[in-house]
Specification:
Strand content of chain A: under 5%
Order of helices and strands of chain B: HEHEEEHEEEEHHHHH
Radius of gyration of chain B: 24 Å
Shape of chain B: globular
Number of domains of chain A: 1
Strand order of the largest sheet of chain B: 1-4-3-2-5-6
Order of helices and strands of chain A: HHHHHHHHHHHH
Oligomer: heterodimer
Largest sheet of chain B: 6 strands, mixed
Number of strands of chain A: 0
Largest interface: A-B, 16 and 22 residues
Distance between the termini of chain B: 60 Å
Distance between the termini of chain A: 58 Å
């Protein structure tokens, strides 16, 4: 009975630790957005500003995604497991928050959280921010798994993943006919769906590129770069295939400037980006040729 | 599709191929043997005998060819060497498994005629002597070099003076010599015994559709029936 009680107590303690992680985000939010200090520290009324709700809770979902990869193995020693859990959990949250801060500055370099979320209640901003948070969480989770509990490798891979993801977001202008800045100002939902699909597709490809065996960090990083490049080669082929097979007329209909045609087009683009990202990740991550060395 | 996109895609393709080629782990530490001359420049020292012990190809559409050599030196232990080769070189040597395809004598004479393994040491007075037996003159290695027949796979082979003369003649005429009873080469009995690795691999790995489906049936139905 004592043993069962102990186990239950340990589970409760970890639950409290994860809650503390969420509390940590509350104050990190103040650090990242200092001018909105009062806004996050006071009570949140989700129905008041749904864009802000989307923005804040996407980050909380992200933290939960990162925590979902952590493990507590009592058989390696109680203190050791607790410390492992604490150190990896804390570094995960810190890296995730820094990722968000950096990605916010890359993707929304022309936009301010205060203006877009609190004043204008820009739904497009909220949806893109939501997608970005989830994508970053999955990326950080993925490199967490690849780093195999080594903090140095975790840091190197995190930087590497951030560079790849940051660079990939800048390619949106090449693959979409939608203008990010102008449509974001117009709170265009089509843009939000299109860009979200693009982010999810990119994240899937980069995660697939990171997912392979590694014996030394240099050859591992080379393989990641090669797989990412391969992704960039396969992605347009799938997209062209979908467009040809379904005879899709690309681009918003001329003469119509309302949001409705853009919404449909944005949903189409987002869906295609997501689907093509998934299919590309199969090609670069799930086709195995066995050993390249001759089996003499 | 406009021209800019085609150019960017082509550049990406070239970058990928270039990086893959130059950064591929298979390119590190493995030499490329294009022909006999490149094999000669790869092998250092003398006297030395290079025995082809295995050959292998990878790739489904564009194949890469590899050969494995046993490099037997006169005054040191042997070493094994895996090289990437050209298709032509592989095809040329496909019948010479277990044979010496390159040798260099002490006076730095080189020969590429396929001969029995270690033939460069036979008749060399530094390594052994001719003994008169009931079979006639037979080559015998000195005790200090008793490892050479083991390394070359000649330990059960009796090198008579006739064999030696035939080796000399084959070098002069540049014609392969498989032994008087075809003991050497890919079909040779001594090769099969001394270099079995090549023959262990299933080189006729044919896909059988019937076997494939019967395996599926076995795995999915018979196993579950057994579990019940």
């Amino acid at each position: 009975m004592n043993e069962i009680f102990d186990k239950l107590l340990i589970r409760f303690l970890f639950t409290v630790f994860i809650c503390l992680g969420l509390l940590f985000y509350k104050y990190a939010h103040v650090l990242f957005y200092p001018s909105q200090k009062k806004q996050i520290l006071k009570k949140i009324y989700p129905s008041e500003n749904y864009v802000d709700t989307l923005h804040v809770f996407s980050r909380l979902i992200g933290i939960a995604i990162i925590f979902s990869t952590l493990e507590f193995n009592e058989y390696i020693g109680f203190v050791r497991s607790v410390l492992d859990f604490f150190i990896l959990g804390t570094s995960g949250i810190v890296l995730y928050l820094f990722s968000l801060y950096i990605m916010d500055n890359i993707v929304f370099y022309n936009f301010e959280y205060k203006d877009e979320v609190l004043k204008k209640r820009n739904a497009s901003y909220g949806i893109v921010s939501f997608s970005q948070s989830i994508c970053m969480a999955f990326l950080v989770r993925s490199i967490f798994q690849e780093s195999e509990h080594s903090l140095i490798i975790l840091f190197i891979l995190w930087l590497f993943a951030l560079v790849l993801f940051g660079f990939s977001t800048k390619l949106y202008g090449y693959v979409s006919k939608l203008s990010f800045n102008s449509l974001m100002i117009q709170k265009n939902l089509g843009l939000a769906f299109s860009y979200s699909g693009f982010l999810f597709g990119n994240a899937l490809i980069i995660m697939a590129a990171f997912h392979h065996e590694h014996h030394d960090i240099v050859s591992y990083c080379i393989q990641v770069v090669l797989k990412t490049l391969l992704g960039a080669l396969i992605f347009p082929i799938f997209r062209a295939g979908v467009t040809q097979v379904f005879q899709i007329q690309e681009g918003p209909t001329e003469g119509q400037t309302t949001e409705i045609p853009h919404l449909g087009y944005g949903i189409y683009e987002g869906s295609v980006f997501l689907m093509v990202g998934l299919l590309t990740s199969i090609i670069i991550g799930q086709i195995h040729f066995g050993t390249i060395y001759p089996f003499f | 599709m406009n021209l800019n996109k085609i150019i960017i895609y082509s550049l990406l393709l070239l970058t990928y191929l270039g990086l893959s080629k130059s950064l591929s782990p298979s390119e590190f530490g493995i030499s490329y043997v294009f022909n006999e001359e490149s094999l000669s420049s790869l092998i250092k020292g003398a006297p030395v005998s290079v025995i082809l012990v295995d050959t292998h190809s990878t790739g489904f559409i564009i194949k890469t060819y590899y050969q494995k050599y046993k490099v037997v030196y006169g005054f040191q232990t042997y070493e094994e060497l895996i090289v990437r080769t050209s298709r032509a070189f592989t095809q040329k040597n496909k019948d010479y498994i277990g044979m010496s395809i390159f040798r260099r004598s002490e006076d730095l004479n080189e020969s590429f005629t396929p001969l029995p393994p270690g033939s460069v040491f036979i008749g060399n007075r530094d390594f052994g002597r001719w003994r008169n037996t009931s079979k006639g003159k037979v080559w015998s290695f000195y005790r200090a070099y008793r490892y050479i027949p083991q390394y070359t796979g000649l330990k059960s082979y009796t090198a008579t003076y006739n064999v030696f003369q035939q080796i000399q003649k084959s070098v002069r005429d540049n014609t392969p010599f498989f032994g008087f009873n075809d003991e050497f080469g890919t079909k040779g009995s001594i090769t099969k015994r001394e270099f079995p690795a090549y023959f262990k691999k299933d080189r006729n790995d044919q896909f059988d559709l019937k076997d494939y489906f019967s395996d599926i049936v076995k795995r999915n139905f018979r196993a579950s029936r057994g579990a019940q």
